[in-house]
Amino acid sequence: MSVAPDATSAPPRPRRQNVRFTTSAGRGPILVVTAEGEVDAANALLLSKHVEGELESASRLIVDLRALDFFAVQGFSILHRINVMSSRHAVNWVVLAGSEVNRVLGVCDPDGGLPVADSMESAIATVTRPPRSHLRLVTSR
Q1: If DSSP codes are grouped into helix, strand and coil, which group holds residue 81?
Q2: Which contiguous run of DSSP H or E holds residue 114?
Q3: What is the rounded distance in angstroms from the CA atom of residue 104 to the CA atom of residue 91?
Q4: Are 114 and 133 contacting, i.e. CB atoms less than 8 angstroms apart?
């Protein structure tokens, strides 16, 4: 006969981080923030906080999300927040989207309000163009 362990006596498990962020210098003054793993409701704000911490030293930013295995709808709100913060700091930015991010953007941003690239080359070209208005009006259908 086995007895289930008492849940109150079990030591708390450390929370599993299912996303990792790295920041590296790209070509010239371009900063690249890369996320790997999963962005979900529990950790989406971590992406925003990580990028916000980098905006003080950046004039051009690529947020590379191609290595994500999962991107929840909450991630779209974070990308919008990054867009607003980038505008506030006068940072020319683009998200380098993979299939998971494109899936969410297809539903949440069908009119392409966010700056999105599908390759590193096009991302570099986007952020090295003269600054654009990060906030733009999208007409309704």
Answers
A1: helix
A2: none
A3: 24
A4: no
